[in-house]
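[audit] Reproducing an earlier prediction to check determinism. Same input, same settings, fresh worker. If the tokens differ from the archived copy the diff job will pick it up downstream; this log only records the rerun itself.
[audit] input (302 residues):
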Amino acid sequence: MKNKKILIIAGGGTKHLASFKKEAKELGVNLTTASFSDLEYLTDEADFVLKVKGKDVASFDLIYIRLVGKRFEDVALLTSYAKEKGVAIVDKIYERSQYIRLPLAKSLETKLLYKAGIPIPKTFFGNLSKIKKKGPEIFGLPFVIKGTVGKQGHAVWSPRNPEELEKLIQDLGESERKGGRFIAQEFIKASQRDRVLVIGGKAIAAITRPTRWRRRFIEKVNGEYPEGKRKGLIPVPKKDAELAISAARALSIDIGGVDIIHEDAINKTYVLEVNSAPRWEAIKKDTRLNVEREIIKFLASA
């Protein structure tokens, strides 16, 4: 662990990377944290050298790209140089192509999961006009519409009737005219959504949360809707763990949060998404797992 030189880099400042520094110090790991704003090069030098905080990026053994934000240009520059110099990159998907954008657009992510045999909700990709026409034919109502890019949990809608669908399509029209794309998916009656954190091919922690539209189909008890479960899943359920690992592997994601649902009536399982830049505050709170320490241990041994 002590000799390996690791770089963790992210968009914005480095304040949110401080916990990685603390864990690396305790583990004796040689870690540098940086922002994409710290990248620089000068073409007057004899050989092209991309530097971060004054150090040649080629001097590192491994780079973990924690958060990208809107810094796609910086990521392309960094990963292309790292590949030229033989520097390992986490996530591995960057080693497929230095111009890949993470998180993946949902249209591409869904295709890759489907091709890998991962169970996902039935999905239709097309323009809004086609979604309006074919969505009710394929799925009935309600169904789910998702924007293909954006923050996790945002840009998700579920029209329940033709009137809601018509209004939603109109509301989303401006986004489509600006280049936005959408997918439609079947509505799965699952009252809980599990999030499994995968690090280096291992499912190390999981939590469960109630789903957004559960009150559409669950029954009241004594006149009230029962509260959904908000807790850690300890240990990680075997079926969820295996599926999460397979889904992350299908996308070449080393560190990711995999969202899984189980249909209430028949317990059929689906992967909703694989988040390549997961938030883990809730996982730390509910499971008491030191996520940053686990990540540093993985990076040092990768």
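[audit] rerun output stored. Observation attached for the diff report: Residues 192-301 form a domain with the D-amino Acid Aminotransferase; Chain A, domain 1 fold (CATH 3.30.470.20).
[audit] end
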